[in-house]
Design a protein that fits this description.
CATH architecture of the largest domain: Sandwich
Number of helices: 9
Structural class: mainly beta
Mean pLDDT: 90
Largest sheet: 7 strands, antiparallel
Helix content: 10-25%
Strand content: 25-35%
Shape: globular
CATH class of the largest domain: Mainly Beta
CATH topology of the largest domain: Immunoglobulin-like
């Protein structure tokens, strides 16, 4: 079905702040990969990141079917998207065309040598759901989502920095590096002096830009995009242990940072020995378990990124709660100083953020001294030349151990670390020694849930679920179930009533009831399996709700549900159907 989709980009910089080049967008089937973290940029991305030129990138994109366009500014500076400017474009798409399913974007951040914004995962912006409805949404790009193309040295010189004096394209010094998170402008350098508001450019709470997908109304209707706040506090006492920048990754539960009593991966070794999460991040990006990851840096101490004692930092991230890859939280951080001490969750399902129905659970965990692990990759000699943050000047310089991940025995009682005044309280083996607290919260989790309906075209049984995972399993594995799309909206968990779900093992039919009396009666029937709370609705009608009717067919021994008055009247006129509840009303649901 044809659909006009509007895509806008808003420069969230202050009035005297930074700019964006015309934003390239591409709509595709999910296979177009703009870049891979810690791998060289393509020629097209290099041209965009160094000079804002999208011609080669467009040529690279056009090797496959899809649509690409430019979102061009024009507020004050020709083509460039000025601070606080909103630029927009409309696309004529077809909801049934697989090449119109996903959106990628990229824009050079100026002035800079080769900083850019783009979505790392080609499927992170899904334009249409499985019934063809537009997934409108807002995507905020924060400072820690600025990328460095690794193609040009960040010298900030006048003759080589786009939009800051450069007269000819491609004139900077080649770097020959890889795409990685940007470190921002040079501290106290030329660009910070030209743009005083650009200090702390890569802070996790600094808003760089906002991409919006909508139907022309400007209204965002996708209830599944959720902004989360990750807060990390170093709980160690003064002169206690420090934390390296905390790596995090959201997954479907199949990813594990380590296995006890097994060798550490190269990525975990690099993190545990030197606090460098880049290889671990690359390992995470190679799997199918998830795509949202990052590092949380401290900003209190003298050393960049390290979380000082009693320091608290916050970090924002946007997740799609309908995706299984958003369900679980993973983290890892090096304990400083040490040879290879670290903390991480080895159990991939230990920290559940969303349940299987997409309900937000959050996290509030305390990392204790007893949780510290030894990577088994470097001997714990505590020599200053081998020990990170204790005198070591070059990474990966300790003596190899070639063992496995085990609980850390603690620092040497008479060793170098605990004898140092700066770390006199770093003995994490002491009773009640707390290292860190990590919380994940959200103030904007939508409360109304889409309930998906299915009809078994063989037995005429109906099935309802709020679970995207369950929905997709049925679509992909049970062809006799015909999708009815969004049947109705579930209610607010805080004010609604639970709707209990049972499975009849004799008929293969599901029963839904808000009644505790009926629930308890059915619990006593051997042929019914209780499946818990299916979703939330309302026993009494409130504003913006409509009745959901329940009928029992005596011949088929099956219940039928509908919100349609016409279907209700059809059931009432058929003697094989018996209306249950108050005139057939089982409960009330939110109107779509």
């Amino acid at each position: 079905m044809p659909e006009t989709v509007y895509i806008s980009i808003e420069n969230l910089s202050t009035e005297a702040g930074t700019f964006l080049t015309p934003t390239w967008i591409g709509v595709h089937d999910g296979r177009f990969d703009l870049f891979d973290r810690f791998r060289p940029a393509s020629v097209g991305l290099e041209r965009l990141a160094e000079d804002g030129n999208t011609e080669v990138l467009s040529q690279e994109f056009n090797y496959q079917s899809g649509i690409d366009r430019l979102i061009v500014g024009g507020d004050r500076t020709p083509s460039v998207i000025d601070p606080r400017e909103i630029a927009q474009i409309s696309l004529e798409l077809n909801t049934e065309n697989p090449n119109h399913q996903y959106l990628s974007y990229a824009s050079m951040f100026i002035p800079s040598n080769d900083i850019f914004i783009a979505n790392e995962d080609s499927r992170s912006i899904d334009l249409f759901d499985d019934t063809g409805n537009l997934n409108s949404g807002e995507y905020i790009i924060y400072g820690d989502r600025l990328w460095d193309a690794g193609t040009e040295v960040n010298d900030e010189n006048e003759n080589s920095t786009a939009f800051a004096g450069q007269e000819q394209p491609n004139t900077g010094t080649s770097e020959g590096g890889v795409v990685s998170p940007s470190s921002g402008y040079i501290n106290g350098g030329r660009l910070e002096s030209l743009y005083p508001g650009a200090e702390n450019l890569v802070d996790s709470d600094r808003e760089i830009a906002k991409l919006t997908v909508h139907d022309g109304s400007g209204i965002v209707t996708n209830p599944n995009l959720v902004e989360l706040t990750i807060t990390v506090t170093n709980l160690a006492p003064e002169n206690g242990t420090l934390l390296s920048p905390v790596w995090y990754g959201f997954s479907d539960g199949t990813y594990e940072t380590y296995d006890p009593n097994r060798p550490a991966s190269p990525g975990l070794e690099s993190l545990a020995e030197d606090g460098d999460a880049s290889i671990l991040a690359n390992e995470f990006s190679l799997g199918d378990w998830g795509y949202v990851q990052g590092t949380i840096n401290g900003n209190k101490g003298a050393d960049p990124g390290i979380l000082d004692t009693e320091e608290t930092v916050t970090h924002k991230v946007i997740l799609d709660r309908s995706q299984s890859s958003s369900r679980y939280f993973n983290y890892a951080s090096m304990i400083l100083p040490s040879n290879d001490a670290f903390v991480a969750n080895g159990n991939g399902i230990a920290h559940e953020i969303f349940d299987r129905n997409g309900n937000f659970l959050g996290v509030d965990l305390t990392v204790k001294g007893s949780d510290v692990l030894d990577a088994g990759t470097e001997i714990n000699d505590e020599l200053p030349s081998n020990t990170a943050f204790f005198g070591q000047t070059t990474p990966n310089t300790g003596e190899n151990q070639n063992r496995v991940v085990t609980p850390h025995p603690g620092f040497k009682p008479e060793g170098s670390i605990l004898n140092a005044a700066d770390f006199s309280n770093a003995d994490f083996t002491q009773p009640n020694y707390d290292l860190a607290r990590i919380t994940i919260t959200s103030s904007q989790v939508p409360t109304r849930r889409e309930i998906y309906g299915f009809l078994d075209i063989v037995s005429f049984r109906q099935f309802y679920t709020p679970s995207i995972i369950e929905r997709d399993y049925i679509v992909n594995n049970l062809p006799q179930y015909r999708s009815q799309g969004i049947a109705f909206l579930g209610g607010d968990e805080a004010t609604g009533d639970p709707i209990y779900r049972f499975f009849n093992t004799s008929t293969g039919q599901h029963l839904y009831t808000p009644s505790e009396v009926e629930r308890d009666a059915v619990l006593g029937l051997k042929n019914y399996n209780f499946e818990g709370i299916g979703f939330y609705a309302y026993k009494q009608q409130i504003e913006d709700t409509e009745p959901l009717y329940r009928f029992y067919n005596t011949e088929l021994d099956t219940h039928f549900y509908t919100t349609s008055p016409a279907e209700r009247d059809g059931y009432l006129s058929n003697e094989d159907f018996v209306a249950e509840g108050d005139g057939g009303i089982a409960f009330y649901v939110d109107t779509i």
